[in-house]
TrEMBL record:
Entry keyword annotation includes Methyltransferase: yes
Family of this protein: Belongs to the class I-like SAM-binding methyltransferase superfamily. rRNA adenine N(6)-methyltransferase family. RsmA subfamily.
Identification of the protein by name: Ribosomal RNA small subunit methyltransferase A
Any GO molecular function: 16S rRNA (adenine(1518)-N(6)/adenine(1519)-N(6))-dimethyltransferase activity
Protein role: Specifically dimethylates two adjacent adenosines (A1518 and A1519) in the loop of a conserved hairpin near the 3'-end of 16S rRNA in the 30S particle. May play a critical role in biogenesis of 30S subunits.
Localization per Swiss-Prot or TrEMBL: Cytoplasm
Keywords of the record: Cytoplasm, Methyltransferase, RNA-binding, rRNA processing, S-adenosyl-L-methionine, Transferase
Catalytic activity: adenosine(1518)/adenosine(1519) in 16S rRNA + 4 S-adenosyl-L-methionine = N(6)-dimethyladenosine(1518)/N(6)-dimethyladenosine(1519) in 16S rRNA + 4 S-adenosyl-L-homocysteine + 4 H(+)
Provenance organism: Rubripirellula lacrimiformis
Gene3D superfamilies named in the record: Ribosomal RNA adenine dimethylase-like, domain 2, Vaccinia Virus protein VP39
């Protein structure tokens, strides 16, 4: 702990958050506030300290060497700044610090990695990422939280905060994000990897993950907290009720696993649903097998748009204006899909082959 981290903050004069250490200031056994409204000169002795601002010995009692993140702490901290969690921004903060650690640990971050975090919040996961990574880029849409996190993370030169929406629109990330990632990666050298590690805002989790998989560089590893239902869809197998466009898109490029299911009680405020920590590992060799990744993604989306319909009618409407019915029938026959086939029964390889056959038929027809 350094003296520089001392903060004389009028909102909490008797208890300051010194980086990761909560401190209670006691003067002759009683909390005294007035002496400490300006920056005191503090000397530290083991796990106590003395303050030379007042003649009496001033004992600082170290309450904990971990940041506090209980529901009470967070609610008080936001209330002190006149704030409440904003539900439209998906502000459900993780209050179990073991799980914050689990997220960071599961990403196996190295010193030359660039880590992107979407949703800085008050910066608790960000600090752990900053301890382990070469560079952390963190994006927060809420100006109040961005300001709070900026103060919290001020002494961390490897953290860059961006204030704004991580999405330019549903299909595109904010361009600044990838520009910063590429910059940081080139600074950290050729072994540097790019990771997404976040407790994601649930309402934008799908476009964030889907869009990032289109980007260059693609994240080598993604470890994120998302809604459990979305986690189930990502890892779903053909024929199951959760299998759909997201399963096919993600599994076509990554290995996917659910690391832990989280109950609502580990968040504040509690969400209505269970959550999941998932890990995705990018497989560049799979990605390289696609002649046109954007075309593949668009085809997959349209194949699952009406998941209960027969494959033939889905493909006919998806290819309208590009292939006529006989051309669609020829492709389906060539791929061995009968009249009663449905997209949800096709495995990854069958979908990839169908999408590629449709792409080639389209080129031939144009
Ligand atoms: C689930 S909270 C996670 C906060 C913190 N990282 C934690 O682990 O407790 C999601 C955060 O994402 C922010 N957020 C929501 N939508 C966003 C968007 N489109 N772009 C950037 N940040 C967003 C919210 O304001 C909120 O702080």
């Amino acid at each position: 702990m350094s003296k520089d981290r001392w903060r004389s903050d009028n909102r909490s004069l008797s208890r300051w958050n010194l980086g990761h250490t909560r401190v209670r200031v006691l003067i002759r056994g009683k909390p005294r506030r007035n002496h400490l409204s300006s920056r005191p000169d503090v000397g530290y002795h083991g796990d106590s300290a003395c303050c030379n601002l007042v003649p009496e010995a001033c004992i600082l009692t170290f309450m904990s060497n971990q940041p506090r993140q209980t529901a009470t702490y967070l609610s008080k901290r936001l209330a002190a700044a006149g704030l409440r969690p904003v539900s439209r921004f998906g502000q459900n903060f993780l209050i179990d610090l073991n799980l914050v650690d689990l997220i960071a640990r599961s990403a196996e971050i190295r010193k030359d990695d660039v880590v992107l975090e979407i949703g800085t919040g008050v910066g608790s996961l960000t600090s752990r990422l900053s301890d382990q990574a070469g560079a952390v880029l963190t994006v927060e849409i809420d100006n109040n939280l961005h300001q709070m996190a900026s103060e919290e993370l001020a002494g961390r030169p490897n953290v860059k905060l961006i204030h704004g929406d991580a999405l330019k629109n549903k299909n595109t990330l904010r361009p600044e994000i990838m520009e910063n990632v590429r910059d940081a990666k080139s600074r950290l050298g050729e072994n540097s990897r790019f990771l997404l590690v976040s407790n994601l805002p649930y309402n934008v989790a799908t476009p964030i993950i889907s869009n990032l998989l289109h980007e260059t560089p693609t994240p080598d590893v993604i470890v994120v907290t998302i809604q459990k239902e979305m986690g189930d869809r990502i890892v779903a197998e053909p024929g199951s009720k959760d299998y759909g466009a997201l399963s096919v898109w993600v599994q076509s490029i990554c290995d996917a696993e659910i690391i832990r299911i989280l109950p609502p009680t580990v968040f504040w405020p509690r969400p209505k649903v269970h959550s999941a920590i998932i890990r995705l590992d990018h497989r560049p060799e799979r990605r390289a097998s696609f002649a046109d990744l954007d075309h593949f993604h668009a085809t997959v989306r349209s194949l699952f748009f009406h998941r209960r319909k027969f494959l033939r009618s889905v493909v006919i409407s998806a290819m309208k204006g590009r292939l006529d019915k006989p051309q669609v029938d020829a492709v389906l026959q060539q791929q061995g899909h009968g009249e009663t086939a449905r997209a949800e029964e096709l495995n990854l390889t069958q979908i990839q082959q169908l999408a590629e056959a449709l792409r080639l038929a389209e080129i031939a027809a144009s």
